[in-house]
Amino acid sequence: MAFEWHVAIRLVLAVIVGVVIGSERARHGRAAGMRTHVLVCLGAALTALIGIYAQEELGNDGDMMRISAQVISGIGFLGAGMIILKNNNVIMGLTTAAGVWATGIIGIAIGAGFYWGAVLATVLLLLSLILFARFERRQKSVEVIYLEIDDMYSANAIVETVSTIIQHDFVSKILPPKSGFPGHLGINIIVSKRCSVDLKQLLAIDHVVFTEEEE
Q: What's the predicted TM-score (pTM) here?
């Protein structure tokens, strides 16, 4: 098979893997969603292909994985931008940052033609994100629910309505809205014990435009 076909297949597979992993993060409202994971995986795959091209097509005798090695360390600037400290002193974004880093390495594997390792790593990564998230939620001592509302003057009334839905003691904290939209307000509902919360009921409250369970 011509080298050009190898390039096309590997780059397309890198995009598919980025979409699959990124869609899981996007479904949870994370800043690094589908597009970020696609770009990271695609770029990492291309760096591996550049090394192979330089060695096989140009006859360069250097280390063909030298460029790819820089992806593993250089991607740290993305991870640092995803990790934030929330107002309730909870560190957020570690899982997403680690996922982007792992996606970059999977991209390198795809670019190098290590398909079996890339596909298996993608499956295991997704299983880890989905299954372990459920396990961790069961282990939490508190529940943190994020609400975003489009009318800041209705915040008190909304919290009162939430108290009729979540029949446990909780505290509420005002946050900047994740969307960044003017006039919107974020509210963290911190329940004092682990419980099951119906997010659809919370989303049905007037002026609530988004809700999610924090990891």
A: 0.54
